[in-house]
Amino acid sequence: MAASQYFKREAIFLNGSWRQANSNKSIDVFNPANGQKIGYVPNAGEEETREVVKAAKLAFEDFRKTTALERANILRKLHDEIMQNQEALAELLTLEQGKPLAEARAEISIAASYLLWFAEEARRVFGDLIPSPHSGQKLMVSKQPIGVVAAITPWNFPFSMIARKVGPAIAAGCSVIVKPSELTPFSGLAWGVIAEDIGLPNGVINIITGEAEAIGHVLTRHLDVRKLTFTGSTRVGKQLLEKSASTVKKISMELGGNAPFIVFEDADLDKAVEGAIAAKYRNSGQTCICTNRFYVHASIYDDFVENFTKETKKLKVGNGFDLDITQGPLINEVAIEKAKRFVEDAKQKGGVILTGGKPYLHSLETGYFFEPTVIANATKDMLFSKEEIFAPIAPIYKFESEAEVIALANDTDYGLAAYFYTQNLGRSFRVSDALDYGMIGVNAAMLTKVEAPFGGVKASGLGKEGGSQGIDEYLESKYICLGGLEA
Ligand code: NAP
User: Fold this and answer.
1) The whole model's pTM is what?
2) Could you report the per-residue pLDDT of 431-460, keeping only the tens digit for each?
3) Ligand 1 atom at shortest distance from the alpha carbon of 185
4) Is 236 in the pocket of ligand 1 (CB under 6 A)?
5) What is the set of active-site residues?
């Protein structure tokens, strides 16, 4: 743990310097596994945000002039620095977020791999040469960095969500202002330490913590912020979209989900159960692409439910630092209350609790643990049919036909990820086409790959992160009509 203390900074990182809020006020940070205070971060507001926009704008003017190769090398250095400190960063992540240490290590590693991906992409930002309809002209299109980027990130993947934004922003030649969640700010502030250690120019990465609304107010309405990238709830995303309208920024929104997981009668049942466990319980169900609704064909419903429940009972709940743990705590008391509400509502409407169903009482600690929960006989009038669960609760619905389950799966405002299991090739294509989602897992439960575009449709968001599309969000096309070329 000593090494993780090096990255734990109780200060904001503005223009290459560490400092407190102007008001000297702070926000306490707690370990969700035991409710104990682990530190504080500055409670900055509008004033500091305006200062940081000014610094980021100045830094951008120089940084935009760097070559793609120079920026690729910066990203490689960031990658190496993160991987050399993987264990310390993972410990810090588990301390403030609660996830099992193995999952925290994986998050640090995937974050680093986004940087490597964008180091490679940085050198492939090509323009176009377009045939002109008029003689003596060349029509050219070049790509330019968009400018100062504001990145607002959530608590559930507090390190890797920043990598998906900082990686392409730096690759494109932008400067960035990151606002991590007050619930898990240390993993965000650690990016300041890493930036400092690799000698990144001042103001290229800035990390600010504090009053979310006040900081958001300035970032959305400031003309010098040319891009807002947000990962978080649909509720806050909609507010930020509205506020950004007055300054017509480029926007990316990675928002909430309500993922269906369909098991057809022709699925490999063992693989479907294995995938179902992975797609439900990672990060204790606190993942935007976590399954919210399991739909299982009536002919295999009982078998699936039995096997899935048996596997769920093997999960081990507890402090993420304990070695045999698979399920850490939920983030706070509000999350526990929400989980209880989902279970009570389902019970009243005929749901059958096969395992779990209540907060988990850890023997020594008093953290926010919830039992992995399986609810059979789920119906569409239950609250979790429409709302994002964000807890280890697995409702299982029964269906009879392909057409019926496609309609059920699409009957939501969200459209982030969907999964289905089948061994029928025709059905794989047919159902993939019919599902209104940004990402589809066919016989696959782990979707996130740096090489592929991550993002949703409908109320799940706008734009993509990762893949070859990820960098476009940070670039503007500029068209140049070069005339007078006749002899
Ligand atoms: P959230 O409450 O929307 O918060 C996200 C971020 O926005 C935090 O930094 C938060 O700061 C900040 N924020 C809150 N209110 C704000 C305001 N009025 N103005 C500016 N910023 C504001 O979401 P969350 O609870 O942290 O994260 C969970 C949600 O994120 C889920 O819905 C999940 O599905 C979604 N998510 C989506 C993806 C994806 O890729 N699609 C990935 C991960 C998570 P404070 O925390 O300091 O208040």
Assistant:
1) 0.97
2) 999 999 999 999 999 999 999 999 999 999
3) 47
4) yes
5) 254, 288
